[in-house]
Amino acid sequence: MRSTQNIRAAEASRTLSDNERRLIDAYWRACNYLCAGMIYLRDNPLLKEPLRPEHFKNRLLGHWGSDPGQTFIWVHLNRVIRKFDLNMIYLSGPGHGAPAVISNCYLEKTYSEIYPEKSRDEAGMLNLFRAFSFPGQLGSHCTPEVPGSIHEGGELGYSVSHAFGAVFDNPDLIASVVVGDGEAETGPLATSWHSNKFLNPIRDGAVLPILHMNGYKIANPTLLARITPQELEDLFKGYGWTPHVVEGEEPDAMHEKMASTVEACVLQIRAIQEQARKANKPDRPRWPMIILRSPKGWTGPKEVDGHQVENFWRSHQVPVTEVKSNPEHLRIVEQWMRSYRPQELFDEHGALMPELQDLAPVGERRMSANPHANGGKLRKPLAIPDFRDYAVPLDSPGSKRVSPTENLGRFLRDVMKSNMTSFRLFSPDENASNRLQEVYKASPKTWMAQIKPEDADGTEIAPDGRVMEMLSEHTLEGWLEGYLLTGRHGIFNTYEAFVHIVDSMYNQHAKWLDKAKLEVRWRAPISSLNILISSLVWRQDHNGFTHQDPGFLDLVSNKSAEITRIYLPPDANCLLSVADHCLRSTDYVNVIVSDKQPHLVYLDMEAAAIHCAKGIGIWEWASTDAADEPDVVMASAGDILTQEALAAVAILREHLPKLKIRFVNVVDLYRLQPSTEHPHGLSDRDFDALFTRDKPVIFNFHGYPWLIHKFTYRRTNHSNIHVRGYKEKGNINTPLELAIQNQVDRFNLAIDVIDRVPGLRNSGAHLKEWLKGQIIDSINHANTEGTDRDEIQHWKWPQG
Amino acid sequence: MRSTQNIRAAEASRTLSDNERRLIDAYWRACNYLCAGMIYLRDNPLLKEPLRPEHFKNRLLGHWGSDPGQTFIWVHLNRVIRKFDLNMIYLSGPGHGAPAVISNCYLEKTYSEIYPEKSRDEAGMLNLFRAFSFPGQLGSHCTPEVPGSIHEGGELGYSVSHAFGAVFDNPDLIASVVVGDGEAETGPLATSWHSNKFLNPIRDGAVLPILHMNGYKIANPTLLARITPQELEDLFKGYGWTPHVVEGEEPDAMHEKMASTVEACVLQIRAIQEQARKANKPDRPRWPMIILRSPKGWTGPKEVDGHQVENFWRSHQVPVTEVKSNPEHLRIVEQWMRSYRPQELFDEHGALMPELQDLAPVGERRMSANPHANGGKLRKPLAIPDFRDYAVPLDSPGSKRVSPTENLGRFLRDVMKSNMTSFRLFSPDENASNRLQEVYKASPKTWMAQIKPEDADGTEIAPDGRVMEMLSEHTLEGWLEGYLLTGRHGIFNTYEAFVHIVDSMYNQHAKWLDKAKLEVRWRAPISSLNILISSLVWRQDHNGFTHQDPGFLDLVSNKSAEITRIYLPPDANCLLSVADHCLRSTDYVNVIVSDKQPHLVYLDMEAAAIHCAKGIGIWEWASTDAADEPDVVMASAGDILTQEALAAVAILREHLPKLKIRFVNVVDLYRLQPSTEHPHGLSDRDFDALFTRDKPVIFNFHGYPWLIHKFTYRRTNHSNIHVRGYKEKGNINTPLELAIQNQVDRFNLAIDVIDRVPGLRNSGAHLKEWLKGQIIDSINHANTEGTDRDEIQHWKWPQG
Q1: What residues form DSSP beta bridges with B308?
Q2: Does this model's pTM top 0.90?
Q3: Contact A135 B240 (CB under 8 A)
């Protein structure tokens, strides 16, 4: 099966001269030789001597299967980079393809430039071999330590979305992305092919996917390799691509096919871009993609101990084991490695032959040295308008009600206006639901698929839109990561419960940041990954239980303190201040939790900015302890929870006017941790000054209560900290009813105070009965009449 | 665009008589009328009076957009169920389609049978209307409370995989599954179409997907609605289906098209099954699927306030708001609801007209009453061989080394052999990697795609295989959930780090179980969801940092204590006992953490069974405190961590023979929680008896250390519990090196003891220096020579 384009290519006159083909093949052999060397050798790197057991590593680790296919792709991309002076990066999707990438980094000198001990000579080659899969050194994925990489691929599924993220607003860039046919079975990858409906050929670059069909995963064939060629072609046409198939195993024929196909694809990309840019008319193109069918473990041992290895899953990892003890195995490896004829590839000192060196691009055109793959180098700080200009003016605390996210939308609108080529907002069809719709005034949503006349009435979609919406959290998160890793800025906003869909992506990005920031010095800082969580657990009036899960924060806090930040701004003004801070920061994951419903505003802009900068503080206007030691500390973190905690204080102030209450609000959750655990952590002295050393603390928390204990269990007063939060009780409920079920409501909080402050058991007994009555009344009211969502927010705030 | 099949169908003579079409349309109108009533009315349910503001609910909540399309599908499925006596269930993929399903449950009487107050009369109809989206009552998804549902759909993406899970080993069953075109954009859904390569027409049932292309999500068009019809057809052909398109909006024409198409699909399914079953030759068929293009909010208001509503995203939720205050809006709703002509549908008492009642299937043929959707009713306990027969015989603790999962594989092999139609094992291409390959002796992996001759050499795939492997955690988890929900049994096993890919699926299944178990009495218990986590954080010698994340347990513990269980068997015999227990249990999520590498076996089978039944206990053979109060408690949870803790004790026993050490091992992690928090929790008295009230406790834990604090922070001795665990430090490391980096190794644990036991600071000073030296030596050794994975596991266990 060949696509029409492919037949046309095959019929054309040959693309490669005999000499060019010979050189490309030699370069490819050099790559493959290095890959094998990385897996096997700890000595005798140039095979100057016959291989002996002591030349082999003690422990053989690594993955061969995907390597030769990927090196094949790389050398052919090199050819077109040089021929057309392309600005291209490479993303390696298959799980364990690092040797393919590292070998090329080494051959084109980038590796030696960064890691001088891996010099391009015999000693350096040996260092390279030894470092691979050696404890603490080179991993078998394209880790942050690998130059040219923005995609590690330890977990599978995100290569295509990362590639698209890289080329948005990079009109000159081509991201070539190798997709393993194993990876292609994952859900995130399967939908990410649709990213082509969001790529504008005028202002964006291009993605050239190469589906590497080597046919096998760890121990199974791949699905796509075992459907009919017609189905495969239909599938990719259905996804909106123009597939080009390169299939075979005989190197000479394959070089010619691949060279002509890659060249045809590049020309097709250029033609699409030129046409769109000249006409200034971005019709959705059918971008080219390549399906490369080549054997797994290509050019490796064909058979070992009577079992097929090449072109079979047995070549996935180390294709021949026990080489130290099994002479036949040793012979197979030697024969295999010598089949690349290293003496033709490297001189006696281990340097790549000059005629081969000439095949690689130079300087920043090398895929291993392209600055887009070290995006911090290209990053320019955002132009950010003064967030104070978007403040909600306020006479007194709680005198206004505003949707925090709706107000934020105005700020983000102008952030976008000021950064029309370097800032994007990402959401799974939820920007408007999360009340950020004001941003559409700066730019509509990107939409390269069909637009109908009725869309003019409020749909806000256009080919040159900059707001990214697709109903795939995976794709959005992947796009944003790719966008950030190449030096730009953005925010992902999503429903709280469903941010768990990208838990694993968060884990992987956090791990990447951790290594890149703390261990890989040549990587420049990139913009933080900003995740805005809205449509919170506490306001799921008609969505119910499935939409109630605040546990993402638990997950976040498992990752390194050096790169994680959690903010729970209590109101609209605080959200502005937090957002401004996060947009300026680098190398963090900032998680912002903010509801979309109208909420009371407590702090004017100046007070909010100060409060957020401190991250935690006493709200004196809500407290009654003056400068005294309080009887009780009421603390809160989260907008809805702060409202209820304040309402509880209002009740207590009215009914128990002598009670000394201190009100503490936490914006920056990590302030609670000891300073020894997190850079934002308060010293014990400062913590004690806020929370006392021995007074009861009622802490009303947005999420699962345990997180507050996790952060505070080493504090002096921990045993007195009583945390309320979501305890997995819910249904479709009114907000007050849900709060009551989880005991985060004003009435239960007031009862908590009465129960815990010594001496109140008697004097507060009457109030407690009244509070219990309020709880019953509220539930009854909800159960008979339903409740308008607004009415529960009001309370009587005592004057003076 | 129409498929060939469709043209053929259209050309055939009419499927519906005029009368049948009239009746079907009336039934459909009755459904739609009820849907609208659920969203709007609190009085006047039969519109006997003109609508007045007080007839409307105070708060309008619900989703109209998807309802009329889904009711349309349901009534047409009813027709073929009756015509062909089909055994069919219905899965509602779109997020908020509950009114469509509930209205049908009500009309076919199931609803009234279960919830008598929702009787089929005027009062019952009013109760139904009032209950919908009312606090604490009927949600807008197909929650566990909805009869006939096994798929809630609050989170999107899993409808197709659930449907496939339902029909595996149910040769007679057809699962019709409505996929929203919004949901179709998610990654999990996008790859789940490939499930057709795992469905064997001989022994499995069939899935009939109906892609409901109503064109819009919350606020955007859907991607699939805005690509060309040719692309759409190519896509589904590429996925291996035969698509049939039904498109239009004029009800009469649509009824005819849908009737003929659904009938054609059913006949096609039957033909495929008959052919395969007769020939006993399961070639992969191209199963039929339907693409239904109908307007969003079909038959609803066309326009409101000058904005298009029908066939646009504006009909997603409540299509007309402010009906109490806006007379024009009230008029629109009245006109719309009366357009269904309720007086023709219901008699004056509110009962569905008899001629319409006859249209629904009866008894268990009703999709709302099909027993497969209440799988616990059909569930039969597994036939389980005696796990003791698979024991590792043992002379003394630590005298053998066995891979726990490899040994488990033998047990699972025979579990499978004994339950060849009701048990399956699911894994993302990792069963063999996780060493469970012995199960292939009972049955190979299911594979309906192409099989090549070379597969005979060890690939273990066959059309009638029962082990499910595809590189999509989402699809596997979805299949298993569907399989369990319909009354069968299974295990999902996956790499520890990547179980996070299904975090959100776990959350949703746990929430389903929580409600189904505790609140929905008519649902019978289903088999527990068993998740076996292997390839653990501590043994990622060549995979490195990306593969190190034990945080799934944190997520698990956020869900209800009534349905969550976590087991960390320390060795192969304990794993057998735990697995046996989990396979017998119902209505839990059981998470089992067990490594695949060879580990020491500590307990013989009898001791293991007792230890696991207790879930926690003192290992006296490892302790030196006799019956005395110990100087220190060394505790462990997890196989690798237990080994290091024991090794630390061995060192201490040798060097500090007078030190009284108590060794406690925890299998059932929830034993640590107070009994007030979890049914498995120890009483404080029992906890104190194990961990003392005041002695130092060194706890070596498999996961992030916090979880132990979370479970124990209310215990008497909590301030003395010192937890070691993974603290996010890693790379490609030798096991000992990784342990040392995270301080869970024997040397650091011994130092912990010296540091924390009063009086050892001096007497243990010399040992501490030696231990530090060991740490440095170990790191140096790893950094110079690398280390074979085995050598660190040995230690000298003092005799006597």
Answers
A1: B303
A2: yes
A3: no
